[in-house]
Structures are given as structure tokens and as C-alpha cells.
Amino acid sequence: MGSYLPSTPSEQQEMLEAIGLGHLRDLYTPDVPASVLLEDSVNIPSGLPEMSVRARMEKMASKNTVFGTVLRGAGSYNHHIPAIVNTVTSREEFLTTYTPYQPEISQGVLQSIFEYQTMMAELTGLDVSNASVYDGASAAAEAVMMTQTRSRSRVYVASTAHPDVIRTIKTYCWGRGVPFCEIHQNDGLLDLDALRDLPKDTACVYVQQPNFYGLFEQAEGIAELTHEAGAKAVMGFYPISLGICKSPGEMGFDIAVGEGQPLGLPMSWGGPYLGIMTARKELMRMLPGRIVGETKDSKGRRAYVLTLQAREQHIRREKASSNICTNQALCAMTAAVYLAAMGPDGLAEVAQLCYEGAHYFSEELGKLKGFGRVHKAEFFNEFMTYCPMDVRLFELEMARRGILCGLAVDDKLLWCVTEKVDKQEIDDVIAIIKEVCGQ
Amino acid sequence: MKLIFERSVSGRRTFQMPMSSFPRKELPKELARQTPPRLPEMSEVAISRHYTQLAKQAFGVNNGFYPLGSCTMKYNPRINEAVAALTGFTKIHPLQPQETVRGCHEVLDTARELLCEITGMDDMTFQPAAGAHGEFAGLLLIKKYHESRGDTKRTRVLVPDSAHGTNPASASMVGYTVTHIPSDSEGCVDLEALRSALDDTVAGLMLTNPNTVGIFDRNILEITRLVHDAGGLNYYDGANLNAIMGWVRPGDMGFDVIHLNLHKTFSTPHGGGGPGSGPVGCKNILKEFLPASYMGERIKKGEKPRSFGQVRSFYGNFLVVVRALTYILTLGKEGLPQASGMAVLNANYMMSKLKHAYPLAYDRICMHEFVLTLEKIKKETGVSALDVAKCLLDHGIHPPTMYFPLVVNEALMVEPTETENRETLDAAVEAFLKIKRQIEDNPQSLRGYPVTTPISRPDEVNAARNPVVRYDFSQA
Q1: Which CATH architecture has domain A83-337?
Q2: Which among B88, B336, B458 is the nearest to A303, CB-wise?
Q3: B45 touches A at CB < 8 Å
Q4: Which CATH class is domain A69-80+344-436?
Q5: What is the pLDDT of residues B54-76, one digit of tens each?
Q6: Per the CB 3.0–4.6 Å rule, which of A25, A174, A387, B233 could disulfide with B256?
Q7: Does the predicted model carry a pTM greater than 0.95?
Q8: Domain interval for residue B424
């Protein structure tokens, strides 16, 4: 119905005549083999007016359940998004621009990326950041690829990391032909003994903090053992936790990667999200993707440009450090606006609320029958419990009451509490759980 | 312009958190952060004004003509944004029970069905987040296919010398070595060179058609047949699909696997470099190897043994797919070929008006983009493609892609897209011609542009030599 074409049929005809043709088809017949040139478009429905398209898409959206209470994380987190965030990022100048290839007319975008890079470096306690990659899992995979050297290729990944992250790293390793090993766990934590005699070809160890079960790993010990083996230590982090928790840099890690979704991006059924990557400055030239740097223009004014491009695919082609081109720029800007809106104190308060809420909830759950914690270790805002009834049935009963409960992992539940859940809501949820379980 | 950190004042706040209703609990000391991050401390009005100022120094499709070759900077319809903002899409957790996300599945299933029909493919994954990510995933499909047949000799990928840099870079990421196939005098694949490169070590060929010089390779059926005869697979780089929607399908041309750039062809906004979406379509022979999210699809031990794995978490950049689906439903069967046809017509119209002033790399009917070469002009006057591009900035036009494809010296690659009207094209042509007259009259003057932009040409060499990639707080 619509095609957003400004040209009227008569204009179209005049333009065709201007180049000596009679019909749009004449543009294709010289080179497209007749046997594959379509007679009458492709076999899809006719276009629809805006009202009908909107109605159809709204109908699809209405078939999804928006839960009032979300107690599930596992890689996607229901945090509050201050109103200023979307107001800024929906501006058309930001929304509709391409990668800032022309710095003279793109200082706004370039400066915003430079500010993002600075915030990510600060947040993770490391020196430098790139302009973003696709999401947390692909960031982790790109990070282990950064650590590859001639003599060191073996990748060790904590089995306590998010399963999607593990599988993504494994896929990238299989692609490149890099040896991949999982490090086993005890009671939900990485087994430090497994890191004591790492082979000489070890490139890196990847560990997630807090891990998939929400637990704090013995991260400093892990970094130390990794460095003793001459390998690089890579940490996957949860950005909200860094409001109060020790940063990857403070714990001795060389590279930090994280899923940036909690920083102002809606859950959106899994994307678009944001892959954050920061590193020590010695590794700067190994970072994949865009990096913005500061310089001066010909009149000596401060200016920002895409820099260190000699690493990238459009220059180095098959020798590039990565193939990444398009990244998640607008999501990076979202994270920057979010962090500016929160400030250091606001971020610490969010983190503290998540931490306190989760501990209150786990204690209240512990008072019920059959909802004891599975692990002993200290946790941040996610924790795993047993479930006294069939988990699948429990999930559906809770969903029926408007609550997205903890994620069913085998026969257990992985719960998450964010700042959006207060004490009253948790008390209500506890009452509902009692009802569902007949306690 | 001040950096956001230079506007920060200790103690200023935007967002107020509610007071904690929980019993106070302190994080154990050994886990607590030692130094707080130096994030900006700003009032909301200061944040708002800061970004408004930054926006004034940004150039989007809505700011003006954006004929950036290979990037398909078409208009981004507003209905797409409105639909993508529906809470029934944004407030959905990726690991909700299946019964509660039927609408999300309907979005992907409908988009898959339509895009498979548009491209002539049998199945599609939406997991890849961008074009290059799609290339990586598509090549992993090819790798898995050969591996599954015990065909382990195939370690080479053929890539034309005119290809996007992502093609060879993606091939390296799957452990393949790259053999470059030279272009012939018309910018197309040199068939003789292709024949001599093909043997039983070739995993596949990566090709864009229309290619990066904007020409539809008329030998396409012969090319894909030769690769198939040698036991290889054909990979279609969908970067240039905007030329051919509803006219010809990659699947009919002999391609086995394809990636799309929803952020180019299907009108979703680029956001300053992302998020995009790079779905990968394939023929039935590759279907079983498609990626799957371990958590999202609740893969149990032993399930999906043939899948190559996954390239990111969950199901991809879902909201980008929502926008693209909205666009396809709007255009439909008649709108798609109209859009592509007009994209091609606009390019040919501009080309015909420019070719007397600026030599064409290849003088024949083009598809949705064409390539000028300033090689001769540079030799005679010293004025480069860069100089012309920078001068265009002062005319309020985003310059074409510069110095790409690599097979053309001093290249300017122009892609007007279908959403520009004739007045805009005529005005751009006039700007190009005016610059040409200036080159003839006073070539030296071209060195000084732009002059109307917030900054003049920056020192990029210094930026790379002495990298400053974050704010130095000790300056404050």
C-alpha cells in the first residue's frame, strides 16, 4: 500500500524518459537473466494502509503477556528506565544517522561514544572501552578471541557462566578452530583447583561475576591463578552490580565484558541489547569494533574521530581482529544517558536495593516448605531455590496470577529481584506462593 | 563543546530512587567496590540540554540527503517506531513461558515466511545482530555442512576483490583461507579466474549481486553453477538487496545461504551504527544446522545435535525485526518492486546527469548505486575524492561512500535510495556540478572544505598515533 516513494507516476515516467527508458522493468532486463526475472513480484500479500498494519501488529503484541511482577533475570533484567533516557535516544538525529564516517558533521555522535567509552572504563575499573558490540554473549566470545596469540589459544570457560554465553564462546571457538574447555564447579562455584595447573597453551580464562546462579565467585583468586599460568583473565559482569560491587579492574582482570541491557534498555524479548567491552590499555589495539578518539581539527579545536582503524575489517580484511562493522551504537548511547541520569550515587542505590530485596525475598522463601536455597555462597540479586512442586506447573500457576516467577532450571528455580519490586510486593508474592503450593 | 564530565557537579542528581523498604543489609567488605565510578552528576535539565546540543552536531536521514553507497540510507518510517515501542513487545522477558509469548513467535514466524519468499530461501534465523554477524553465521552453516559430510578438505572461501571487507574478515573467523577472485573489465566476476580457483578445497563463494560497483552480474547463473559443480556452496551478501526486491530472488540465482541487512533494505534506522539485524536464510540442505539459543529454546542434552551452536544470546535484535515486518506488511507485493525499481531509477537518473562531469568507473546501466572515479581528476588537478566529499558537506549533503570498492581508485559510491524526490536529486547533481566547475577554476580551493561545519578536517593521523580514547579526569 505505502512504499514511502515521493515520486508521482508522471515524475517516474519523466525520469525514465530522461535516461532513455520506458518502464522500470527496462532497468533489469539488460543484465538479469530472463529465466530468473520475476513476472509479477514475489508471492506475498498486498501492502496495507498504516491503520491496518498498526492494528495487525498491535494484535500480535496483545498475544504476549506483560507481567506486572517480574522475578526472573538469567540474562535479561527488569530495571526501571528513567523517562529522560528514551526522550534522548529517540531523537531523529541520533536514530537515523549512520556510523559517523564524516567527523565534521558527526561530532555529536562521536562525542557521545567517547563519553560512553569513558563511562564503561570507569564502571569496570579498566583503561579503555570500544564503542560496543552486539550483546553480552558475543562480547564474551570476541574477548576470548582477543587473547589469542601464536603460542596460546586454549580457552577456559567457567561452567557457572550463563549457558547462552558458554554456547556462544564455544561456537566462536569451533569456528576459528580454537580449543575450548569448561571448568567444572562445586556447589555453584568455580573449582579453583581446576585452575592450578593450566597448560602452557592457555590463552584465557572466562568467568562470570555474579555467576549464572547469582553467586559471587572467588574472582580475585581466579585472576591470580590465571595470571600465574601466563594467561589473560576475562570477566563477564552485571553492570548494575558494579554500583556497589568490586569492579573487574579492582579484582585484577584484564578484559571485562558485559550485557549492557540493564542500563536503560527494555527486555524486548532478547534484543536489541548491548555488548560492553573494556580492557587494560596494553590490549587496546586488540579490541574489536569501533573506537572513538580525541584529536584536533585543522584550527586546533577539540574534535572526535573513529580511530585505530588499522585493526578493522575495511582496512585489514582477512587479517582484521574481528569482522564487526555495525554495532549497537544507539544502545550504547542509551546506557550512557542512563548512567548520567543515575550518577554514581543513583547506581549504588539501585544496586543496594537489588541486593537487599533479593536477600529479604530469599529469607522469606526460606521460611516456606521446600524453597530452601540450593547453594551456600554469597549472592547479589539472583539465587536458586528448590521447588516443592512440579516447576513447570508452579510457573504456570504463578503466571496465571500475573507473576513471572524464577526461571525453571531443571527442577529448581532461579529467582531475581530488581529495584522494581518492593517489600510489600514480595510479601504479596509470598502469600501467593503459599496459596499455589497449598501451604 | 563541553564533555558531559565537564558539566558534572558533585551532588547534582536526576533520578531519585525510592527509599529502601527492606531491612538494611551490607555487602561483605571483601566484595565491595573500593573506588566509585566517576559517572557524571547532572540535573535532568542539564542532561537534556547536553544531548540536544550533541544532536545539533549529528546528521541523520531526516537532516538531509544521505547517498552513502552500500548503506541504503532510506527514510525510516515512523509507524515502525510506534509499533516497536508497544509494551507488548518491549516489556517481554526473553525467557517467559511459551504460552505467554505467542505474539513474539508470530512476529518471527511471519517475518520468516515473508523474507523467505522475498529471497527464495527455505528457512531463516534472526539471531545475528548485524550484517557481518550474519556473514559469520552463514559461513558457520557452510562449515557445518561440509563437516557433516566428512568433507574436511574444504578450507578455502572465494571472495571477489570488490567485496566488502567484512567478507574476508568473516571467512577468517571460521578458519577459512581467502582466495581473491579478480574482477573483469566490467567490474564483475572474472569467469576464467573463478574456474581456475575452483577445486575440491573450496567451501564456497561469497558474492554480492548487484555487486559493490552497482552492477548486476549477468553471468550469475553460470557463476553459481560452477561453484556447485565443484562441490562448494554459494553465499549471498544481502547488503545490496535493495536493488532487486520483487524483481529477482537470490534463491533463484543459485544461492544456498544469504544474510539480510534489515537496517538497510527493510528501513530500520541505523542509530549511529546500530542496532541492526542480520537474519540468515538458507536452503533446506542447511536448515538443520541453524543456530539455537540454549536457554531460549531450552535445549536439553542431546537435542539439536546438528545445530552449529549460537552467535549471541536469545533470538536476535527482536525489536528491529518488528520494525522490518511492519515495513514489509506496509509495502507488500506491489510496494517492494516499486521501491527497488525507484531506487534503481533514482541511481540511473543521477548517474546520467553526473557522468559527463565525473568519469564513471563502469559506464552502463547500474542498479541502486553507481561508482564515480576521480583518478583522472586527481592526476590533472590534485583534487581527490576526499576533497569533493568534504566540499559536499558545505552543501548540506552527506557525502557518498569514499574509497570503496577498493578495485576503483579515488572512488565515490553514490546510492540515492528510492525515498528521495527528484528535486533532491537535482539539487545534489547541481552541487556536484558546481564543485566540478570549481575544480576546473581553482583546484587549490578544494583543500579547505568544509567551512560551515562545527569542526574543520580533523587530524586523524594524530588520533591514531597518540590515542586518547577516554576522558582524562585529572584535567578537571
Answers
A1: 3-Layer(aba) Sandwich (3.40)
A2: B458
A3: no
A4: alpha beta
A5: 999 999 999 999 999 999 999 99
A6: B233
A7: yes
A8: 333-448
